[in-house]
Amino acid sequence: MSTRSKAARRSHPLLLYRRLASYYGTPSVWLLLVSVVLLVWDHPSLKDLQLALVLAALLSVTLILLTFVMSRLARVECGEDGLLVQVPLYRVHVPYDSIARTRTRSLGSLFPRKKQPFSARSFLNPLWQRPAVVVEVELLPLPSRQLRLWMDARMFLKSALVLLVEDNRGLRSQIDEAMIRWRVAKRGP
Q1: CA distance 46 to 86
Q2: How far is 27 from 110, CA to CA, in rounded Å?
Q3: 8 and 33 share a domain?
Q4: Do residues 103 and 41 both lie within one domain?
Q5: What is the DSSP letter of 165?
Q6: Is the pLDDT of residue 25 over 60?
Q7: One domain, residues 121 and 153
Q8: Domain count, the chain
Q9: Residue 156 is part of which domain span?
Q10: Average pLDDT score over residue span 30-58
Q11: Which residues pair with 18 in a beta bridge?
């Protein structure tokens, strides 16, 4: 595999899922610690709560593992014939011929803070000013109702995908370069 192919295949973790892991990870670790300490302490007054403590410990371990796996699976990369957006349970393929252009905008300008539900504001607080790569498409790869099943609502607009990654400049240039290579290859020699 050439150096250009490796650069085109470089994957970028999606920050919304990394934020999800950190947002739920800390309370889950605390819940696990408290429930394990109370189980180990084994005070007679806690005998009736032993099953609840075991369930709390199991739930917190499950939540920690799930959010960790989700944060590591969620990524975006440029493929041979399209952009691949891997969310935890689904892979969205966006063909290069449907991509109109890419641009960079902050998450806060795309999804104004006042229009977000109150419950999502604290979750999104560290991400508002982060620049996201907006991939404008002629047609979304799936109907928006179906996309909502698999992706966060802040990952797509009416006719664009919103990709919040650490290296937004790198991803944007990779998408643009991959589209050019794909168009040149399609035209042939």
Answers
A1: 44
A2: 29
A3: no
A4: no
A5: B
A6: yes
A7: yes
A8: 2
A9: 3-12+75-187
A10: 92
A11: none
90-95, strands of its sheet edge to edge: 12-13, 75-78, 82-87, 90-95
Asked if residue 92 and residue 67 are part of one domain, the reply reads no
Integer Cα distance of 66 and 57 in angstroms: 14
Side-chain-facing half-sphere of 170: CA atoms under 13 Å: 12
Residue 127 shares a structural domain with residue 175: yes
Q: Going by C-beta distance under 8 Å and a sequence separation of 6 or more, which residues neighbour residue 160? A: 134, 135, 136, 137
Residue with tokens 């369930």: 55
Tell me the per-residue pLDDT of 130-183, one tens digit each, with 9 for 90 and over.
Answer: 999 999 999 888 888 888 888 888 898 989 999 999 999 999 999 999 999 998
Residue with tokens 């109702």, as numbered in its chain: 145
Structural domain ending residue among the three candidates 41, 56, 72: 72
The gap from C-alpha 111 to its chain's centroid, in whole angstroms, comes to 16
Place of tokens 């991803």: 171
CATH number of the domain that 125 lies in?
2.30.29
